[in-house]
Automatic annotation (TrEMBL):
GO terms for molecular function: diguanylate cyclase activity. One of its GO terms (cellular component) is plasma membrane. Residues 125-178 form the PAS domain. It is an enzyme of class 2 (transferase). This is diguanylate cyclase. Residues 283-420 form the GGDEF domain.
Length: 434
């Protein structure tokens, strides 16, 4: 922009020669209009103009959001320091003195365009990265070597229930369990001491404390980075849903579909665990085996679906007696149920078995053709053992089964118990006695 047409045409010619697309204006108003319309990469502004001068034009360019980013170079015969400083204060990027030396104009224009194109790419890149970080589904954390959180993205804040910037400055130990946090801190320290030798920490499943106190299960991928200082980029991936369905599947695999109490597989695992515990503690373990009396007859008389419903009722009654965390009731097969009472001696187990028997009888499930009772009944065998290294669970089952058959033969609807002692211990004792 210049009010002198000869200056304008000389400048235009020069710019066109350099390969720039050029627009000219002889007044501030016209220059503003063109600037808003074509959004040029650079504006050369004459300072002294009739009407709106160059400084005012520049002020207006800078006050308008669409034009404030366009670099302005002043051209003026007024080259006193205060004029030049005033030009820069208004927001110019350069100040060229008149009369113009065209080679100098070209050099200054080239420099400004170069700076602008570079800073634009940097800004664009930063903007792109910001958009990605703010919109990605994964939670992002930047952690410093001392375990302090430097930055979190919105997904991370959302997963963990925090406001924007609320996590910055906090320690990761506030989010993780102390052992896991210490493991990470040790890793950070190792990496900070020798960044070139340390390996990536990879991905692991962690339980993170939500702001509301609950726990969320997440995959945390940690990548070390050296950006003027050692930093750790954490990526959080929510696996709570995945975990829930995994847990549901696992639970389903432990439950008998008909009666909804533990299945045989679960019982065997449970027994194995309690057996080991009992060996360490020296406390007795009692196994109760129950079999529904004349159940074939029940099915034959009332039909298989009635048999199923009856098994469900019996299962619930039995399970209601497994009250302690060390007790477990399970359907072991067909119409056979088992209960484990850990840390329970023979007398207590007998009493428990007797109350289960009475409970089933009290359900008064009609069994029209039973020769034992008008109601459905169960026969129960109890075996108790203080297991030793050389014993196995099999022998406990055999003992309880035998007791159960004694109950069947003794007229059904009764409990029979056997104190097996420890078969292995008995064998050892027998050897010593010899
Ligand atoms: N309705 C139903 N019946 C089952 C199920 N599993 C096993 N049974 C039946 O349970 C019956 C078990 O019969 P038996 O082992 O001969 O013994 P019982 O008739 O109970 O007689 P005792 O044990 O001698 O008192 C069989 O007829 C099986 O078909 C089931 O899931 N549902």
């Amino acid at each position: 922009m210049d009010d002198a047409p000869e200056n304008l045409s000389a400048l235009r010619k020069l710019m066109v020669q350099q390969g720039y697309q050029t627009f000219v204006a002889t007044s501030g108003e016209r220059a503003l209009k063109i600037a808003r319309r074509v959004h040029p990469d650079l504006i050369l502004l004459d300072v002294m103009m009739p009407g709106m001068d160059g400084f005012e034009t520049c002020r207006q360019l800078k006050s308008h959001v669409a034009t404030q980013g366009i670099p302005v170079i002043f051209m003026s015969a007024r080259t006193e320091t205060e004029d030049v400083v005033a030009g820069f204060d208004i927001g110019a990027v350069d100040y060229i003195s008149k009369p113009l030396r065209m080679a100098e104009v070209c050099a200054r224009v080239r420099t400004q365009l170069h700076i602008r194109s570079k800073s634009e790419t940097q800004e664009e890149q930063a903007e792109r990265l910001r958009t990605i970080v703010n919109n990605m589904a994964e939670g992002l954390l930047i952690i410093e070597a001392d375990g302090r959180i430097q930055f979190t993205n919105p997904a991370c804040d959302k997963y963990l229930g925090y406001q924007e910037n609320e996590l910055a400055g906090r320690a990761i130990s506030e989010l993780l369990n102390p052992l896991v946090a210490q493991e990470y801190l040790d890793y950070f320290e190792r990496y900070a001491a020798a960044p070139e030798t340390a390996h990536s920490h990879g991905t692991r499943e962690v339980i993170i404390r939500h702001r509301n106190g609950s726990s969320v299960c997440m995959d945390l991928t940690l990548t070390p980075m050296y950006l003027r200082q050692p930093l750790f980029i954490g990526l959080l991936h929510d696996i709570t849903h995945h975990k829930q369905s995994e847990d549901a599947l696992q639970r389903a695999a432990m439950v008998d579909p008909l009666t909804k109490i533990a299945n045989r597989r679960h019982f065997d695992t449970f027994l194995e665990k309690e057996w080991q515990r009992s060996m360490r503690s020296g406390l007795p373990l009692s196994l109760v085996v129950l079999d529904v009396d004349h159940f074939k007859l029940y099915n034959d008389t009332l039909g298989h679906p009635a048999g199923d419903a009856c098994l469900q009722q019996v299962a619930q009654a039995i399970a209601s007696h497994a009250l302690r965390p060390t007790d477990l009731a399970a359907r072991y097969g067909g119409e056979e149920f088992v209960l484990l009472f850990a840390e329970t001696d023979g007398d207590s187990a007998y009493l428990l078995a007797e109350s289960i028997r009475a409970h089933v009888e009290s359900l008064q499930i009609p069994h029209p053709r039973s020769t034992t009772s008008a109601w459905l009944t169960v026969s129960i065998g109890v075996a108790t053992i203080k297991p030793h290294q050389l014993d196995n669970t099999e022998s406990l089952f055999v003992a309880a089964d035998r007791a159960m058959y004694v109950a069947k033969e003794g007229g059904r609807n009764q409990v029979q118990a056997t104190q097996t002692g420890s078969a292995a211990m008995e064998a050892v004792k027998a050897l010593v006695m010899r």
